[in-house]
Write a structure and sequence with these properties.
The chain is mostly helical. The protein is built from five helices and no strands. Helix 1 packs parallel to helix 3, helix 2 packs antiparallel against helix 3 and helix 3 runs antiparallel to helix 5. The longest helix has 37 residues. It is elongated and about 55 Å long. The protein starts with a helix and ends with a helix. The relative contact order is 0.15. The structure holds protoporphyrin IX containing FE (HEM). The site of protoporphyrin IX containing FE (HEM) has 19 residues, from helix 1, helix 2, helix 3 and helix 5.
């Protein structure tokens, strides 16, 4: 069995799951903010946010990093001399930062301390979309 291709497949499965969460969690925040006066509904949103972040996004993020780093280990660290990998590196750091920012929002919603509007969450929801498009073009076209 080709171990590298196994890592790549597991990397792609983890990245798809991670991206699904990064794209969906801010949508839940939008509905949450727009229904703050309905106590029963907001409790459901709190549970959805916590479960999505802790049980899907967190493991998926860790596994995306793990299998990505295992591929870098197989390919050799001079992969970082290539422009596409440098750009991808910067974008995945931004994506990871965004991930932890969403975690902070989950904790604020949990204690009813959210300060942001639904418009804010609608706007930041575009961040992972833009990063996803650029990352996929980078890894597929591999500009030098
Ligand atoms: C979390 C940290 C990440 C690391 C360390 C990492 C690293 C890597 C490495 C080393 C490869 C192999 C490149 C090659 O084919 O030569 C790869 C492939 C790939 N990565 Fe990542 N990656 C990460 C996150 C992501 C994210 C967030 C996305 C998408 C949004 C992504 C999408 C892809 C795709 C589509 C491939 C397959 C490219 C191909 O087969 O041509 N990766 N990744």
């Amino acid at each position: 069995m080709n171990t590298y291709l196994l890592f790549k497949s597991l990397h792609l499965i983890s990245v798809i799951s991670w991206m699904a969460g990064l794209l969906y969690l801010p949508r839940i925040f939008v509905y949450h903010v727009e229904n703050l006066e309905k106590k029963e509904v907001t409790n459901i949103f709190k549970t959805m946010e916590k479960k999505l972040y802790n049980y899907i996004m967190m493991p998926a993020m860790i596994l995306s990093w793990l299998f990505g780093l295992l591929m870098i280990h197989s390919l050799g660290f001079n992969i970082f001399s290539e422009l596409w990998m440098q750009i991808k590196g910067i974008l995945i750091l931004i994506l990871t930062h965004y991930h932890f920012y969403l975690g902070k929002c989950v904790r604020q919603f949990a204690i009813n301390q959210n300060q942001k509007s639904s418009k804010f969450y609608r706007i930041i929801n575009e961040v992972p979309t833009v990063l996803l498009i650029i990352i996929v073009f980078m890894v597929v076209f591999k500009p030098l």
